[in-house]
Amino acid sequence: MARFGIEEEFLLLDEDALVPLAMAAGTRERFTRLRTGGSVTAEYLTSQLETATEPVDDRAEAETQLRHLRGLVGWHAQEQRAIAAATGHPFATTRTSIVSPSPHYDDVAFRLGHLSRDHEVNGLHVHVEIADDEERVRALNRIRGWLPVLLALTGNSPFANGLDTAFASWRSVLIHRLPSSWCPPRFHDLEDYRGRIRQLLDLDAIGETASLSWAVRLSERFPTVEVRVFDAQLEPEDSVLAAVLCRALLLSDDRSLRGDRLDAVDASLWTAARSGMEARIIDPTTGEAADAWAVVDRMRAASTPALQEFGDEDFVTERLERIRSDGTGATRQRRAVAHEGVHGLAALLRAGTPAPITGQDQAPTP
């Protein structure tokens, strides 16, 4: 069974104003020592945390680790009278974010310049293990056409500067400003993939391969394909849904794909970021525009053999029906604000990273 791993990013937010807060002194060192059921580390900004599961075989193990890790960041946020928010972008911002000190992040901040001031973005990254180098490139090519529908299902950043952006994924709009973002080109083989990256390095568009912002790329550290198209998700089950769909699509040798031209995929990523599951996007099995839910049905059909092999078909069906009835994260955020204002949104975000209950889980110790 192909293993996979999940990385989730969180923003530490003031519990009243929902603006980003820097981590308290000593927090980075405290989390660096945590190595149980995954890890918690600092991210690009001092207001951000990232969690990473260990490699897992199935969704039950993944969900267990995600809940544990979310409990740790929830405990930390509670200690600071804050919320560890699993959202792609904060509701509001002071535009005074501080970059976490490290040579890599210093280089990124230098290259981004003024963009760093509002680059407060949280993503969900899914790694799927594929041992063969060339097969990883083929798998990357296969999933390119499905990126828009995956984004449509997981848009979870509708607000910026205290306003509704009218986008389902404002994070995706901010990411698109980077020099290597959204859909990568189709690659002939591994050497072609490496050559494209060398060109970006030669252009000085990126400082190192780790700065690639493509929505899917090959990991430099692990024998995995890393899918990065997703906003951070409100609930761990939403993250697991994204992960098992990625695994099934990457491992499905579907030769029926017809529509994955770069311009069409990028245009579809824009409409998915704008309108979520109400978007029209390119159906990669026909090359024609279709409603997002129709493309979901095609995606399920293409991935069904792999979903059945891994025992994930019923789970995927149930979670997709949940999204049909309750909406994506962006829809749920908007509904919370419409019904109860900022306090309603705070409650929704807090529910995604509940602090552990004493006696049931153990908080990290200094």
Structure description:
The chain contains twelve helices and 13 strands. It has helices spanning 27-32, 59-79, 103-112, 133-144, 147-154, 170-175, 190-202, 236-250, 262-275, 292-310, 313-326, 329-352; strands at 4-14, 39-42, 48-52, 82-85, 123-129, 159-160, 163-164, 181-182, 213-214, 216-218, 224-231, 280-283, 288-291. The radius of gyration is 19 Å and the shape is globular. Strands 1, 2, 3, 4, 5, 10 and 11 form a seven-stranded antiparallel beta sheet that branches. The longest helix is centred in the C-terminal third of the chain and has 24 residues, at 329-352. The chain is an alpha+beta fold. β2 (39-42) and β3 (48-52) form a beta hairpin. α2 (59-79) packs antiparallel against α8 and α5 runs parallel beside α9.
